Amino acid sequence: MKVLHLIFLLLLFFSLSLQAQYTNVLIDDEGSWTQPEEPSIMINPKNTDHMVGAANIDNIYYSTDAGHTWTTASLSSPYGVWGDPVIIVDTAGAWYFFHLSNPPTWGNWIDRIVCQKKDTIGGTWNNGTYMGLDGTKAQDKEWAVVDITNNNIYVTWTQFDDYGSSSPDDKSDIHFSRSFDGGDTWSEALRINEVSGDCIDDDNTTEGAVPAVGPDGEIYVAWAGPEGLVFDRSLDQGSTWLEEDIYIGPFPDGWAYDIPGISRCNGLPVTKCDLSGGEKHGTIYVNWTDQRNGTDDTDVWLCKSTDGGNTWSEAKRVNDDPPGKQQFFTWMDVDQTTGHLWFVWYDRRAYDDNNTDVYMAVSRDGGETITNFKVSESPFLPFASTFFGDYTNISAYNNVVRPIWARMEGSDLSIWTAIVDSDFGIEEEAPSLLSLEQNYPNPFKESTVISFKLKQPGMISLRVYDVYGRVVASIHDHDYVIAGKHTRVFDPHEHDISPGTYYFSLESNRAAMKKKMIFVK
What we know:
Elements: H1 2-19, E1 24-28, E2 40-44, E3 47-55, E4 59-63, E5 71-74, E6 86-89, E7 95-100, E8 113-118, E9 129-131, E10 138-146, E11 153-160, E12 172-179, E13 190-191, E14 212-213, E15 219-225, E16 228-234, E17 246-249, E18 256-257, E19 265-266, E20 270-273, E21 284-290, E22 299-305, E23 316-317, E24 327-334, E25 341-347, E26 357-363, E27 371-374, E28 393-397, E29 400-409, E30 412-418, E31 420-421, E32 434-436, E33 448-454, E34 458-465, E35 471-481, E36 484-490, E37 500-507, E38 512-519
Antiparallel strand pairs: 1-30, 2-3, 3-4, 4-5, 6-7, 7-8, 8-9, 10-11, 11-12, 12-13, 14-15, 15-16, 16-17, 18-19, 20-21, 21-22, 22-23, 24-25, 25-26, 26-27, 28-29, 29-30, 29-31, 32-33, 33-36, 34-35, 34-37, 37-38
């Protein structure tokens, strides 16, 4: 009977897992003066309830309740605000919005990279500073990162001699600038690539430079271009770079490719480094998409380096569906408290037309094993006549994970996130005689499974509390429970509980442990 009971619980657990659906949150469905796309998002590590997002062209979003609700606004600058939004936060909690320029003076379109700053999430954006101004040359596709050890800010982007030119005399290059004073001033732009690209904004253009910081202050960055996928690094805060870029691998059929229903698409790389202090500390990861398996089979890829970028692993396929479907516009983040890798992308594995879902994946072992899951609540059908943007984004910290993506209904665009928290609670100091696992699924709609372990028998209580600390359900109330692992199914409907945020606590006469769970409609 014990075996049958265990099998029943396992089947129930598996069934609940299949039914799990992460809460989708609408951030913006209007935009300030154009439809929003190309979103960016960042969680504040100092307070994971605080999040800032952005989208083309000048849309800015704020949340102070971990992404459940959002306030929208628009950004202005005397240098103009013209898209490619990037949001970062520094170690003091100041926020930065990087974007392209469009000054009111005619002919200066995207002539610099602009950085606007606000000191707190409730503060006011300054007018901005800038980097990269070089006559009439175009500055495009920037990304930024903060070194958490010294608050330095590093930015990389593509400079075009003449954007869109097919002349062999016009080149594209990867440029770098840094700030040591919180974005007040920026160093002179420095070219870091060895082989230039063309200016067509296509496969042979150098693009996709997303910088990452290593454990000892190294700056790492990969990009795509005429040589394929290449890598560079600096060991002196960006003053000097490698004399010869390191080849990671080919970019089969190029980084610019076609996806049905999408006005344009790319597989440009994202570079991240593990700074968690765990087993994979210092590992560099690069994530991208390409069509090496055919134009009807775009896939998400990952490779890594454990020696500072000198050598690279073979590309590993991230999406786990059978061949023949489209996965595109990937982004990746590393949770710097756990070392877990989190991915987001658009996915058509379930359809034979252009219907599109949003999928995520997580790896808890440095990319060796990867688990896929659908995060969007329903599919959407994009049309190539409406510009859809060039990327998604995701931010993760201390098991709080927030993807951000664009969705299309007819020709209308909107920006969404999802509440994806892999471990809501932090265990209090407690002896190893008992342990409490995170409930699963979480968030949940119908019921959820709570598991705990006792190393010796004793009297315990397992209770559910609301956010005000009031007991709303008692699963165990000073009950004697034998040693071993125990699993309980919690049904909120049996206790007349409304959807919301709750805590469940395992208590003995010597210790208490609690975790957070979310009951959704």
